[in-house]
Structures are given as C-alpha cells and as structure tokens.
Amino acid sequence: MSNIMIAGAGHGGLVAGAMLAKAGHNVTVYEKLAKKDLGHDWQDRFTFSLLAEELGIAESDFTEDIWEYRGDCAFVSPAKRKRVVINYSEENRQKIMWRKPLINMLIENAEKSGVKFRFETPVLAPITEGRAVKGVKTKEGSVFADLVIDAAGIFSPLRTNLPKHFLIENTPKYGDVFYAYRAYYNKTLNLTLEAPFEVYLRHEGEPGLSWFYTADQWVDILIGRTYPLTREKVNEQLMLFREDHPWFGDEILHGGQFGVIPVRRPLTLMVADGYAAIGDSAFMTTPMNGMGIDLSIEAGRLLADTVFHAESDRYTAEILWEYNRDFHMLFGADTAKNEGLKNALLTLPSYGVDFLFEQDVIQSSDLSGAGRNTNIAGLLGKLTRGMKRPPFFGAIINGLIHGSKAAKLYASPPLFYDLNKINDWNKRIRALDIAIDSQ
Ligand SMILES: Cc1cc2nc3c(=O)[nH]c(=O)nc-3n(C[C@H](O)[C@H](O)[C@H](O)COP(=O)(O)OP(=O)(O)OC[C@H]3O[C@@H](n4cnc5c(N)ncnc54)[C@H](O)[C@@H]3O)c2cc1C
C-alpha cells in the first residue's frame, strides 16, 4: 500500500484517486477550496457515457435537473456578415451538465472508494530532491508521499515551481491560455431562435471567441480572450452584446465568474520520480474548444493503470512514463493537431477570418468537430476559393501541416523513459510551434 497525495480536486485526480483507493492505496486529496465552493456555477459539455461508466451507473441515472440538451449552433464571422449553422441530429445533440453536481459525483465516488479529503488546505510548492518529488508544502506544513498527483489546474503551484532540471514546462506561453468570463442572465423576451447557440469568432475583432446562447430560461454568455480579462473589458463586451440582443437582461442568475482554460497541446513530459501531472495541470484539453473533462477522466484511468503495473511503491519516472507515453499515443496526437489549426487561426487578422468564412473555406463540417474534421485534403478542395487571398489560406494550410507533423511525433513518443531521447523528441515538437503575436 502506497501513500498517494493528490494536489487539487481536479477531475483526473479524482478519477485516479478513486481507482487507487479502491485497490487499497492510502490516498488523500488536498484542495484549496471548501467542499461547498467546488465546481463552477455553469453547465459544461462532455461525454456523459464516460462519466457514467466511471461512476458505475447508467447514463439514464443522471437526473433531469442536472443536465439538458443545448440548442443548434451558429458560428458567426468577426464582421457578423456570415453565419455557419450546425443543426444537430437526435444522436449528436450536445448535452450539457451543471459543473457542481458533476464534481460532487466524482468526490462522492472517491470518498466511497476510500479517498480522504483535506478541504481548505492549499498546496504551496513541491518538495524536491535531485530529480524527484518527495512531497508537498501545504498551508498546514509538509506532507511526504510515495506519489504526488498534480491535479491543481493550469497554474498549479507544483508544476510551476518544479526546478528547471526536471525538464517539465512550467509556464504556458501567449496563446496557450483562454481567459474566460461566464454568466447566465435573465431573458426579457420570451423568444426561441432557430440556432440559439451563437459562437462569435474573434468577437468584435478581439483575439478569442465569445458565445451568446439564448436558452429557454436565460441567456448564457461566455467571453473568452487570449489575455487576462478585466471587469471593464467584460462590461464593454456585454454592452456590445446588448446592442444585438435586446432580450438580454441585466440580472445575473448563475455564474458571473472568471475562469482559465489551457488551449494547447499537452505537456510532452508530465512525470518525474514521484510526480505525475494530470488534467489542466498537464494542459489536457482540445485546444479549439477548451474541452478538458473527457481527457481528464481518460488520463485518470491511464494513470491508475500505470500505478497498478508498478511492482513496488517507488514510482520512478521510468514507471510513470507508461502513463505519459500512453496518453500521448491515445489522445496527445489529436490535440497537437488541433492546436496547429487553432494557432493558425489566431495568427490571422479579423478580416482574414472573415475571408475564410465568406469564401466557404471554413464550413460547418470544420466547425462542428472543433477542427478535428479539417484536413489538408479537404482544404485543397477549397483551393480555388482560398487562393483569392493566398496568405490567409496559406496560414491555415501551414497550421494543418505543423499540426499534423506534431501529431505524428506525439503518436510516437520514446518507448522508454530516457531523458536524452525525450529531450530530443520535445525539441522536434517545439520546432513546430506556430508563433502568435500578442495583440
Ligand atoms: C468557462 C469555462 C468553461 C469550460 N467549459 C468546458 C466544457 O464545456 N467542457 C469541458 O470538457 N471542459 C470545459 N472547461 C475546461 C474544464 O474546466 C477543465 O479542462 C477540466 O475541469 C479539467 O481541469 P482539472 O480538473 O484538471 O482542473 P480544475 O478544474 O482547474 O481543478 C483544479 C482543482 O485544483 C484546485 N486547486 C488549485 N490550486 C490549488 C492549490 N494551490 N492547492 C490545492 N488545490 C488547488 C482548484 O480549486 C480545483 O478544485 C471549461 C473551463 C472554463 C473556465
């Protein structure tokens, strides 16, 4: 039986923790917030069947008060001249669930499996020795563990404070982080739109996107940018939304908070002796849409499986590399490819994105799969239209080429933990990064 400490009640950590505690390990989660404050006050899209399977229940067991279908979607070009509508079929309609019940279900499952929780106990920094993590400094003192699972989110104080010689990337760069504001407001008119979920790319010419979802009971607004948002900026953007949406009331019914999402490929190296990062702490999201719940759950399972394969309670980087490697082979490649397209779009000026919309270079098939359906062969079919403005079309092709090359590398990481090989592999991936100017 090993002592396993989980920093932060992140989704992946909770999944891994439940599996490990069930198998007899001594698992404790240190979470900075009080239990009642966990989980955002908004709804999220993810794969319900994955969560149900994890909890050992049927999808139909989710009660109707915690989830609903989201309406059809319209992507709106920056100049708002073109809308690309996605009508979902009965099978692929988007399901959204409130975050608080989701996180509570994961916590309850972890508790039932034997995981212990220390709420309102922030972790402050890792305790390291050589290239190993031995434990963690917390508000209440030092805690030592055989394995530290870092599920403390994008700005985890563990990952960001690991010494450089761990070769684990500490800080995301410009364009890697999506700063969001989300709130539900009252609706002053009882109207139903044909495509009520409007997603605005480069909304008002700004780097990022916003959405305005006219749901039955309220309007659900997200404002997301590549730079940290201020209250003034949010108010300015809300005013602009009010001009186009006269039914947008001013009473906040849910949310009204800021959040951050990593929108980049996952960490190439996410393990060290006694340490494994998971979820947002390891940047495990789909970059184009910021979805990270599914990937965190999947990663939690992979990490627990890796720990099960260990023959002793010495969780060396060599052993934990299996988790790191398998995550990349199964999921890292797709997200790396997706990052190429996302970054290519971010290099374009607003009128470049308008051009791609208006010439039908960006179509519903590209947008419905968050860019996963976009490929070079498909774009070549749009060559004639795209070549009217070669730089914009070229930027997207370039993003896809870089993304595809990065995906190939992610799909074939070194088989065994060998820092020289990992370093070389990492360098080849980083050479494919697309630079984005902060604007
Ligand atoms: C506005 C918004 C909308 C989103 N929508 C979706 C969506 O629809 N679908 C989807 O799949 N994903 C969505 N995401 C992304 C999703 O929230 C994350 O990818 C997902 O939660 C996985 O992150 P995580 O659990 O690893 O980290 P987090 O959710 O960030 O959890 C980290 C935990 O660690 C705790 N913590 C942080 N610092 C410390 C510390 N020092 N000590 C102890 N504990 C600490 C935090 O309190 C938190 O409980 C959205 C995110 C935002 C902000």
Secondary-structure map:
Elements: E1 3-7, H1 11-22, E2 26-30, E3 43-45, H2 48-55, E4 67-69, E5 73-76, E6 83-86, E7 95-98, H3 99-113, E8 116-118, E9 123-129, E10 132-138, E11 141-144, E12 147-150, H4 157-160, E13 177-187, E14 197-201, E15 208-214, E16 219-225, H5 231-244, E17 248-262, E18 271-272, E19 275-277, H6 293-309, H7 317-347, H8 350-358, H9 364-368, H10 376-380, H11 383-386, H12 390-411, H13 419-430
Parallel strand pairs: 1-2, 1-12, 2-8, 5-14, 12-19
Antiparallel strand pairs: 3-7, 4-7, 5-6, 9-10, 10-11, 13-16, 13-17, 14-15, 15-16, 18-19
Bound molecules: flavin-adenine dinucleotide.
Q: Return the CATH architecture of the largest domain.
A: 3-Layer(bba) Sandwich
How many independent structural domains?
A: 3
Q: Overall pLDDT, averaged?
A: 93
CATH superfamily of the largest domain: FAD/NAD(P)-binding domain
**What is the strand arrangement across the widest sheet?**
6-5-14-15-16-13-17
Bound molecules: flavin-adenine dinucleotide
Number of helices: 13
Any idea what the radius of gyration is? Answer: 22 Å
Shape: globular
Q: Tell me the fraction of residues in β-strands, as a range.
A: 15-25%
Terminal Cα separation, in Å? 51 Å
Could you name the CATH topology of the largest domain?
A: FAD/NAD(P)-binding domain
Number of strands: 19
What kind of sheet is the major sheet?
Answer: 7 strands, mixed
CATH class of the largest domain: Alpha Beta
Low-pLDDT segments, ≥5 res: none
Alpha-beta content class: alpha/beta
Helix content: 25-40%
